[in-house]
Structure formats: structure tokens, C-alpha cells
Amino acid sequence: PVLTFTVDPLPRTVATDKATSSASNATSWTPSWNSTGSNSLPASIPAGGAAVIFAASDGNPTLTTASSGWNKLGQDANSTVVAGAVFTYINSTGSPVNPAFVLSSTASEQYSATVHIFANADTINGTSTNGSGANSNPPSHTPADTSVGVAWLTARMGDAAVQPSAVPSGYIASEWVSAAASGSAGATCDSVLLEKAASASENPGAWTVTSEQHVTWTVAVYKAPTASAGGAAITWGAFSCAGVGTLALAGAAAKTWSA
Questions:
Q1: Which residues, at least 6 apart from 17, have a Cβ–Cβ distance to it below 8 Å?
Q2: How far apart are the C-alpha atoms of 78 and 246, rounded to whole Å?
Q3: How far is CA 141 from its chain centroid?
Q4: Bridge partners (DSSP) listed for residue 158
Q5: Which bin fits 247, alpha (ψ -120 to 50), beta or left (φ > 0)?
Q6: Does position 201 have pLDDT exceeding 80, yes or no?
Q7: How far are the Cα atoms of 26, 107, 214 from residue 134, in angstroms, in the given order?
Q8: Per residue in 226-252, pLDDT tens?
Q9: Whole-number CA gyration radius for the chain
Q10: β-strands 123-131, 50-58 pairing
Q11: H-type alpha helices, the chain
Q12: Rounded Cα–Cα distance for residues 258 and 110 (Å)
């Protein structure tokens, strides 16, 4: 007799999201995420969760942070007109955290930013592009893992005070957050969420917006796959063609059956 079986992977959960935004015109920017004016986030990052900050700047300064625990995913720019950077934080501790975040710049420009806070997320990757004209179109992105559900974010960082009137098709309008450092020397930042089951890639539609220089990002946030407990090794116990046998899996109790 031949026994064929499949071991299912561990359950996966799509990352969940909360979002808010803030704007400032300072050279070295400490976001006032709450009414007290402190540099804390609007909510704590849950244990095992993550945060993504999109930052837009007029001009093209280099945007960085020295704040502990934060990493820069990348930065793109349209010439010297507008720049857009992404910063991430992975909370690998067993408790919620509310880390400070200070954005630094190599030039005195106007800035704006949005932040998304996730539960159940430990992996963030993305792709950027830049352009001019109406209806800013974010790039396609393929995550490093394609077997899990993904919380997708798409963001638009625009020059001056021009902001979108609608999010890309299919994205969750109620999860659209927007910020602006207004004026002809300003910069706007808009970001929005879409949750999807496992997929090879995401290619968002365009933001509905009038003509202006811009940077766009498509970012994947998810819980990375984990190897099944016990490994792949399989050993057989006694087996009889008469229909009685024992199957033992490494790291698990033997299973016995009979005809």
C-alpha cells in the first residue's frame, strides 16, 4: 500500500492597520503626533507589530533618522522638486512600545508625513518611482514572500499643496491619511491601505490628482512564513500489508491505525 499525505503550513494572519498623520515645516522635524506635542506615535506599536512612516519633503534633501529602532527603507525624488522617504520600525519585544521618531534633513525645507501602525507584522519591503503630470501611478511590487497575506500600502508624496481627490481603485478610503506642509514651497503626503490574501505582486491603480511632480511608493507589510514545527524529517515504524501499522513523525507521538 502507498500512503500519501500533505503537512499544512502554520496558519497566517494578515497584518492589521491603524493610521494617522502629521505635518511640520521645521528643518529637523519632531512629529507632534498627539495633542501634547511630544514626539510619540499616535498609538503604541503592539508586541510583534510594526510601523511605517512616509515622509515627503520639498526639494531633494537627504532624509534620515537617528532615532533608536527605526530603519530607512529608501528614498526617491523627482529631480530637485520633491522627495519621498520611508522609515520602518519592527517591534520584536514582548510588549507594546511607543518609540520616538525624529526626522533629520540635509536642507531647510517643508515636510509632511503619515504613519501606519500594524499588529502581527515583522517584514516590510517596497518599490518606489517618481514622475510628473496628473493621476500619480504607484509602481508594481513583488514581496520577498508570496505565500502569505499582505497589508499593502501605497503612498504619494507631492510637490506644493496639490493633493489627491481619490485613492487608487480597490484601496480602503477610510484608511486614507493625508498631510500637507502647504504653499508653493510645501510638500504633501498621502497613504492608504489594502489587505489582500497571498499574491505574487501588487500593482496599484493611480491616485486621482491634478498635474504635479511626485514620488510614489508601493509597500508590503506582513508576517513572514515560519517553518512548521518538527521539521520535514519523517520516519516509519512497523508496517504490515495486512493493514496494521504505525506512523511516527519526528518530534511527535506515533500514530497507529488498523484496517
A1: 116, 117, 118, 151, 175, 193, 195, 221
A2: 66
A3: 12
A4: 188, 214
A5: beta
A6: yes
A7: 28, 28, 10
A8: 754 444 444 444 444 445 455 555 555
A9: 23
A10: unpaired
A11: none
A12: 75
Nearest to 22 by CA among 7, 32, 8: 32
The one-letter amino acid code at 105 reads S
Q: Name the one residue in this structure whose C-alpha cell is 501605497.
A: 154
Amino acid symbol at 207 = W
Side-chain half-sphere exposure of 237, counting CA atoms within 13 A:
13
The C-alpha cell that represents 100 in the structure block: 520616538
Band of pLDDT at residue 14, cut at 50, 70 and 90: low
> Which residue pairs, CB below 8 angstroms and at least 24 apart, start in 239-243?
241/1, 243/1
Pairing of strands 255-258, 214-222: unpaired
CB within 8 Å of 206: residues ≥ 6 apart: 135, 136, 137, 138, 168
What is the rounded CA–CA span in Å between residue 204 and residue 218? 8
Task: Report pTM.
Answer: 0.79
Q: Is the pLDDT higher at 206 or at 243?
A: 206
CB proximity list for 232: less than 8 A, separation 6 or greater: none
Q: Which grid coordinates are listed for 56? A: 515627503
- Encoded amino acid at 164, one letter: P
pLDDT digits (tens, 9 = 90+) for 112-164: 888 888 888 999 999 999 999 999 999 999 998 888 888 899 999 999 889 99
Here the cell at position 6 is 500533505
